Amino acid sequence: MRESWRWFGQFDTIPIDQIRQTGAQAIVSALHEVPYGVVWPHEAIAQRKSEIEAAGFSWDVVESLPVHEAIKKGEGDLSQLFANYRQSLANLAHQGIKTICYNFMPVLDWTRTDLQYPVENGGTCLRFSAVKMAAFEVYMLHLPDAADNYSETTLSDAKIWFDSATSEDKSTLLHAIMSGLPGAVDRYNLDELHPVLRRYEGISHSDLRSNLKRFLEEVVPTASELGMKLCIHPDDPPFDILGLPRIVSSKDDISWLLEAVEEDANGLTFCTGSLGAGAQNDVVEIASRFAHRTHFAHLRNVTKYEDTSFEESEHLGGDVDMVSVIELLLTSEQERAVTIPFRADHGHSLLSDKTMTFQPGYTLIGRLRGLAELRGIIASSSRRFDIAT
Predict the structure, then answer these.
(1) pLDDT tens, N- to C-terminus, the chain (389 residues)
(2) Considering 32, 68, 295, 298, which one is annotated as catalytic?
(3) Considering the domain boundaries, does residue 266 fall inside one?
(4) Residue 389, in any domain of the structure
(5) Which residues span the domain enclosing 344?
(6) Catalytically annotated residue among 68, 295, 346, 348
(7) Which position among 32, 68, 233, 348 bears the catalytic label?
(8) Is 231 a catalytic residue?
(9) Do 161 and 288 have their domain in common?
(10) Do residues 168 and 144 lie in contact, with contact meaning Cβ atoms separated by under 8 Å?
(11) Is residue 362 annotated as part of the catalytic site, yes or no?
(12) Would residue 298 show up in a list of annotated catalytic residues for this protein?
């Protein structure tokens, strides 16, 4: 497996020369400044690649090449948007960048309610609180039928939180929920979020699946011709939020996705944290079943609670059996004669992280700790299974 590190370019406060000191070999990056649906220009791709290579890295994975919301909604004449996506793929392939991570989550990417939740060792982590999410959906956004998705206990606790919350508490919650959007993507306030969500009214899980299949049929053949790998990121969290359907949340969802277009270019970003947050998911079983279509891996861990809350734990703590997942990925590498790039996904805020500003979850010390731990597992497992690293 090949160690990589996510770097947000001009939006990242961690200099790339500091990333070099982590020992990572490759960079995962994107052109976050390019609006969704617009072709990624040759010149901008080449400039980012040159910057990465000048620092001693290779640019191994694009994360992400975003899918326009109109494609997710199946809205209007999409021919130009599909053509633009295919052209962006071609421009990336021309520069030798051939692994593309993307997602099909409506409106928001990963979603948390707390960006600095205290952990026992004095650091902080990202957390998703069902109580705070219920408070946001039911009492701040007043979403129709939102209360139906929560237990009476969760709703009662949400009302208590809402009634005692200050305007600053509510603003902090909104900021946290919006923070999963990377780079220069616009964040929404409460008034702006309502019309955005209304655009998905009437779109069911089945509709969203159909729109995803259409996207795959439009772009996977091009990716195959270019020798590229598309790898979808699972939903985070892996269940519906904000009244929006999510369709890449479980073993059955992934099975449907990979069968929808049966080409190796249609693959998976295996995210142990996203899948691990779902009570319905046996992450090791999912890895066993789909390692052969995994082209990229996000390795992090979570601790779940009965009310669907979860928090990001240490990389070797939490509910996911990280050792077993890594051994399955290593075995798949050997069977396929490929190398899977991975990154230590997210990290606790530790030590000097607390004095820095950074993209939420993308700490320096916390991710460095996680990378070191994962590196140890990979080295040990590779020796046990006589697998070349």
Answers:
(1) 999 999 999 999 999 999 999 999 999 999 999 999 999 999 999 999 999 999 999 999 999 999 999 999 999 999 999 999 999 999 999 999 999 999 999 998 899 999 999 999 899 999 999 999 999 999 999 999 999 999 999 999 999 999 999 999 999 999 999 987 655 566 788 998 999 999 999 999 999 999 999 999 999 999 999 999 999 999 999 999 999 999 999 999 999 999 999 999 999 999 999 999 999 999 999 999 999 999 999 999 999 999 999 999 999 999 999 999 999 999 999 999 999 999 999 999 999 999 999 999 999 999 999 999 999 999 999 887 676 55
(2) 298
(3) yes
(4) no
(5) 2-110+203-384
(6) 346
(7) 233
(8) no
(9) no
(10) no
(11) yes
(12) yes
276 with 335, same domain: the answer is yes
Active site residue 205: no
Q: Is 200 a catalytic residue?
A: no
Find tokens 């059996």 and name the residue.
321
Domain count, the chain: 2
Cα(171)–Cα(320) distance, integer angstroms: 32
Active site residue 346: yes
| Beta-carbon-side half-sphere exposure of residue 245 (alpha carbons within 13 Å) | 18
- The single-letter code of the amino acid at 58 is S
- Residue 135 domain-assigned (yes or no): yes
Burial 8-36 (b: 16+ CB within 10 A, else e): bbeebebebeebeebebebbbbbbbebee
